[in-house]
Amino acid sequence: MAKNIQAIRGMHDVLPDSTPLWQFVERTVAEVLAAYGYREIRMPILEVTELFKRSIGEVTDIVEKEMYTFDDRNGDSLTLRPEGTAGCVRAAMEQGLLHNQTQRLWYQGPMFRHERPQKGRYRQFHQIGVETFGMPGPDIDAEIILMTARIWRALGIDDLELQLNTLGTAEERAAYRNELVGYFESHIDLLDDDSRRRLTSNPLRILDSKNPAMREMLDGAPALTAHLGDASRRHLDFIAETLTEGGVDFILNPRLVRGLDYYARTVFEWVTDRLGAQGTVCAGGRYDGLVELLGGKPAAAVGFALGLERLVAILEEIDPGAGTVAADVYLVLMGEAASRAGLLLAEQLRDALPGREVVAHCGGGGMKAQFKRADRSGARYAVVIGDAELEAGTVMLKPLRADEAQTEVPRAALPATLQQRLD
Ligand code: ATP
Ligand code: MG
């Protein structure tokens, strides 16, 4: 016999027991974003490979070893998006969204990275991403972080830690870079192979290494703070003061970096210690240089992305039953005539009970088997139609959860009766 085909390693089905929690997260985040005036944008999942090489940078984990890249039938090199910012900037430039206007945009969907799968790290994962354009001041940075704090409150998550840093300007980073390279060179024996390669191409990125053997050496690395100019410092101060007044706690972490030259000033992450090494739930920052790098007129930009798998995992841990859904009414239908009557009665119930879940048994089977399904559906009431009820124009209403007596109800009176009982 042929072997059953299985899903690709690191790519997961979200099963019906879990989708309600996913939908809760997606809906809640979308509501918070809407409350700040964000508009959804939907981009293709495939983009030309060049877009990611240029925007994420050749010397990064993503571009060097994580992308799903292939030639299509025309011989064009395409890549399954590993993140959403590049495609969003591409779309905004191409569709003229950046000309003389500000934008608050968001998107959601699957991202693809060929990483080593482990808890909280998958090869297909899902993000909700936010990008804003045309706002150079620290006001939007602060607003975005306040908004992420509101997202956690709305989801009922109260133990994430906010880390904040500034990367200064490109000029400020250049001076820092020299100091950093000097430090790394004096610890060259502690650098892993990746980091040694990056020493010349992208030394800031070394600070971002996940290699535990380098942890201590990285903790001792110099910080950018000493190289910050006045404007960068004021930018950070505005954000820090606004967050403090707004009651959002944060930690200034000078080692929080993005090793890309188009980043400017603000970077932040929300982290949890619930998910082992995969602790970052949300990461963002200001990337004023990206639009220009991709060939557009310079445009200020700030954004973040949050990882839905990690959020869902946190919520499952806080409240294992969270998001479970149950039917309200299950119709047990004995025989063909009852089945037809039951399907139509179920239609009337759905008219009368908006928002309620009404499940009519399909597929036949005996009374006992049907009641087992009714029980498993979580319904509070079973509505039974057999030969006797058909004849009498009634149904048997049987409570499945509460200790109430079963009653015979005229079919025409059932919607009103259930309306009362379910409230
Ligand atoms: P990490 O440091 O965990 O590798 P990253 O810096 O590569 O994350 P970003 O590109 O900033 O991640 O993506 C934003 C968010 O998307 C992360 O904070 C995380 O929540 C989520 N994420 C990133 N990669 C994965 C993955 N492979 N599986 C699940 N979630 C992911
Ligand atoms: Mg990563």
Features:
single chain; 423 residues; alpha+beta; 8-stranded mixed beta sheet; 16 helices; 39% helix; binds adenosine-5'-triphosphate; binds magnesium ion
Summarize the structure.
With 423 residues, the protein is of the alpha+beta class.
State the distance separating the first and last CA atoms: 53 Å
Question: Outline, from the CA principal axes?
Answer: elongated
The main sheet orders its strands as 1-5-6-11-10-9-7-8
Number of strands: 16
Descriptive overview:
The protein is of the alpha+beta class. Helices cover 39% and strands 20% of the residues. It has 16 helices and 16 strands. The chain has helices at 19-35, 49-56, 61-66, 85-94, 138-155, 170-185, 193-201, 203-206, 215-219, 230-245, 290-293, 308-318, 336-352, 367-376, 387-392, 414-422; strands spanning 39-40, 46-48, 68-71, 77-80, 103-112, 124-133, 161-166, 251-252, 266-271, 280-286, 301-307, 329-333, 358-360, 381-385, 394-399, 407-410. The protein has an eight-stranded mixed beta sheet, with helices on both faces. Strand 12 (329-333), helix 13 (336-352) and strand 13 (358-360) form a beta-alpha-beta unit. Helix 1 runs antiparallel to helix 5, helix 1 packs across helix 12 (308-318) and helix 5 (138-155) packs parallel to helix 10 (230-245). The radius of gyration is 28 Å and the shape is elongated. The structure holds adenosine-5'-triphosphate and magnesium ion.
Topology:
Blueprint lengths: L18 H17 L3 E2 L5 E3 H8 L4 H6 L1 E4 L5 E4 L4 H10 L8 E10 L11 E10 L4 H18 L5 E6 L3 H16 L7 H9 L1 H4 L8 H5 L10 H16 L5 E2 L13 E6 L8 E7 L3 H4 L7 E7 H11 L10 E5 L2 H17 L5 E3 L6 H10 L4 E5 L1 H6 L1 E6 L7 E4 L3 H9 L1
Parallel strand pairs: 1-5, 7-8, 12-13, 12-14
Antiparallel strand pairs: 2-4, 3-4, 5-6, 6-11, 7-9, 9-10, 10-11, 14-15, 15-16
Helix pairs in contact: 1-5, 1-12, 5-10
The protein binds adenosine-5'-triphosphate and magnesium ion (MG).
